Amino acid sequence: MKLVIAEYLRTLKERDELDRLLPDLLVEMGYVPVARPQTGNRQYGVDLAARGKNPETDLDELLLLVIKQGDIGRTEWDVGNQAVRQSINEILDVYLKSHIEPQDKDRKIRIIVTTNGELKQVIQASWCGFVEDNQTKVVIEFWGIDRLAELIERHLLDEHVFRDEDRKQLRRALALSGDSDYDRRDLHRLFLRTLGLSNTGALEVPQKSGKALLKAIRIVSLSAHAFASWSLNDGDARQGLQANERALLWVWHRIQLADEETRNEALADAFGSLWTGYLNTARGYFERLQGHCYVEDGLFGYCSDSAQFSVIAFELIGMLATIGLAQVLVTTDDEADNNARFENARIVADALSSLIQNNGICSSPCLDRHSQDITLAVTFLLLTENADKVKTWLHKLVRNIDYAYKTKKYIPVCTDSLDDLAEEGGWSGGQAAERLINTSWTLATLAGWCAILGLDDGYEVIARECKESYPEVCVQLWHPDADVYKHMYFAQAQFNCGAAEAPIELPQSASAWRDHIKTILRSNQAQIAAASAAKQARIPALDIIAYRHYSAPVAPYFWYQFVNVLYPEDTPH
User: Looking at the structure, do residues 207 and 143 belong to the same domain, yes or no?
Assistant: First the structure.
């Protein structure tokens, strides 16, 4: 297990990765972090400070960590202002004299140089001499990758939390992380047992609470991040992103089942590390994909037939939109941080719009559930000021899908089985089977967006042809009820709660459908949307991640709200 942990540690960056893991480790060792890593603040050599009793000697002490990435050689030891030697000297000359709190004056002080690498042999003599010269002032130690792996296994992955079966499941998951067809079942079993959840998302008895739950969340976070690192290195970053999404959603689901005190503590502590890990994994996935978005037909080499081509394309559309919305739909009190995240979102939006423009298949969805991907992408592009590109894409979608329903070929079919798609879906030359085209979320989704964005011609095409050319298709949408938050973070919510609006008979004019949309906005759907714990915690992006991850319909209320922005003059007050 130490080899697994060590290999994971090697992949971590110093900022926002290694320095996020170390506070969790120190907490489990019995220390209390005094100052956590902060960007932009003068730290006088100390990246992380913590006080507590040494678990080996039982002495009260103050730990001052100097965190570095990778191996420590001559350059890292003594070249530049950020060198290890300069950092320690700054602690000795400044921090110990002016930053030690009164309650820490009598504590033993240890300076620990911490890295996910090793101390190279070329500086062993210099290191030993430096430590000996300062031994009368303070204890100086080095925690390299082997020491960190040992401490993590002992304190974070001990036998009381991480059973032998869990270790086996994690090893199997890591071994298969590069397989694009792997369903991550071993990792999911580990998550469930660690969080104390049944296969249905219910709490198991005895229940974990307080520190036990916080520790469980850290275990899930570490396992998900390790899997993501392996998958990125093995060539399938998508696996790592989906694993982090599942960890994020199941942990959030578990937090909502806890008592208020535990819930608040988990949100303030353990969940933040998990969210940061998701963002880092999402960035790695995006960077891997970004270049392909700007190549004409850049996705064509990744599939063998048009149906598979469509599935891949819309999966990418949904994932890119979700990554972008995770930047936009999080609010903080830091205006500079909000601006930086919006600029990140613009970069993702540019890549997404280029992907759609450069790949014609992005206007021909083959599964009805791709309507969720369309909604997320349209929402994201509108929020990043790309309305013209959205309208161009919607024109193509309406044209292609209308043609598909008239010919019964290349229709977005209502099945999740790719076997059905190949055999009866109308994507292999023949016509689609009636059972696969008798319901449609896609038609209602396109009609709604056309009405909201003032594309009345496109709306009228859908409304007219639904009556005249394919009246047998049941046009429908799903609206959640108050129980949605009990289900949506753990599984597909539409099978456990809510109600279908079906069959929808679209009125002839787009203005009439806009009136209908505003009626929905005035309904109890507003109260249901406001009850989202994710929205109350200022991370509504979590709901978006849940919709896409489980291929669930995006609640119409969420995207219907654009009509009040684009048609404010007749919006009821």
Answer: no
